[in-house]
Amino acid sequence: MIDGSLRRMAVERIDLVQFHWWDFSIDGWIESLQTLERLREAGKIRHLGVTNFDAARLEGLLDAGLPIRTNQIQYSLLDRRPEGELVMVCKRRGVDLLAYGTLAGGLLSERWIGKSSPDPQTVNRSLLKYLLIAGECGGWEAQQRRLDVVSAIATKHDVDVAIVAIRWALDRAGVAAAIVGAGDARYAKRNLRLFGFRLDSDDREALERDAPMGLRGEVYGLERESERHASIMHDDLQQARPPET
């Protein structure tokens, strides 16, 4: 698979390979990463990263001598599960966090201010995923209060709600980057506003005091353990891959 990726991208080395393991009750995740480490030592990979690893499993990899550089995790005002033990492990062991889902599938944007909750039967899988998360931390009423607080801060700084939400994630301890989609050039230009302002102490206090607290718990725990959350996840991607050409 690594050789195939190198050929397709026409490069000699992949800068970062991120590894995900769906079910930790199935053995083999450390051994699989050891295979990737041998490929790194052979010069085909520059850095190894993981995706959605909780604190205990991440520390297990590091204790096994694997040089994990990053952990890509879902992190937003709506989902604050990385805070706590995972952040402490990353700080202690030199692992950076890459935050995705910082806009919660678009729920943290002007689009939903003052609007009714979308019908779960009509939304795409990504938005449904975050609707379920919102349901775990106060529901739609709490989400509207959260948006009101973020919107007031956005107005103060003359930026979009999304920019405040991304800036908040970037400012969290251990976060090295936020992964944000840009469907067209408008969003790319909007995202540049991230680097033109900072949240001040009043903003941060308001977000902690007035916005409903985001989801807490084990990183990616609900997605692995709750049938309601796991049912919308794609865990058969390997079987679904088309033949390589």
Describe the protein's topology.
Elements: H1 2-9, E1 14-19, H2 29-41, E2 45-51, H3 55-63, E3 68-74, H4 85-93, E4 96-100, H5 125-136, H6 139-157, H7 161-170, E5 175-178, H8 185-191, H9 201-209, H10 221-225, H11 227-230, H12 237-240
Parallel strand pairs: 1-2, 2-3, 3-4, 4-5
Overall 3D form: globular
Mean residue pLDDT: 93
Strand and helix order: HEHEHEHEHHHEHHHHH
Structural class: alpha/beta
Task: Output the CATH homologous superfamily.
Answer: NADP-dependent oxidoreductase domain
What are the low-pLDDT stretches, counting only 5+ consecutive residues below 50?
none
In what range is the share of β-strand residues?
Answer: 5-15%
Strand order of the largest sheet: 1-2-3-4-5
Domains, number: 1
Second CATH tier, the architecture: Alpha-Beta Barrel
CATH C-level: Alpha Beta
User: How many DSSP H or I helices?
Assistant: 12
Helix content: 40-55%
Computed CA radius of gyration, to the nearest angstrom = 19 Å
What CATH calls the topology is TIM Barrel
End-to-end span in angstroms?
A: 12 Å
Largest sheet: 5 strands, parallel
> How many strand segments?
5
Descriptive keywords:
about 240 residues; alpha/beta; TIM Barrel; five-stranded parallel sheet; 12 helices; about 45% helix
Can you tell me about this structure?
The chain is an alpha/beta fold. The protein has a single domain, classed as NADP-dependent oxidoreductase domain (TIM Barrel, Alpha-Beta Barrel). The protein is 44% helix and 12% strand. The protein is built from twelve helices and five strands. It has a five-stranded parallel beta sheet with strand order 1-2-3-4-5. Helix 3 (55-63) runs parallel beside helix 4 (85-93). The mean pLDDT is 93.
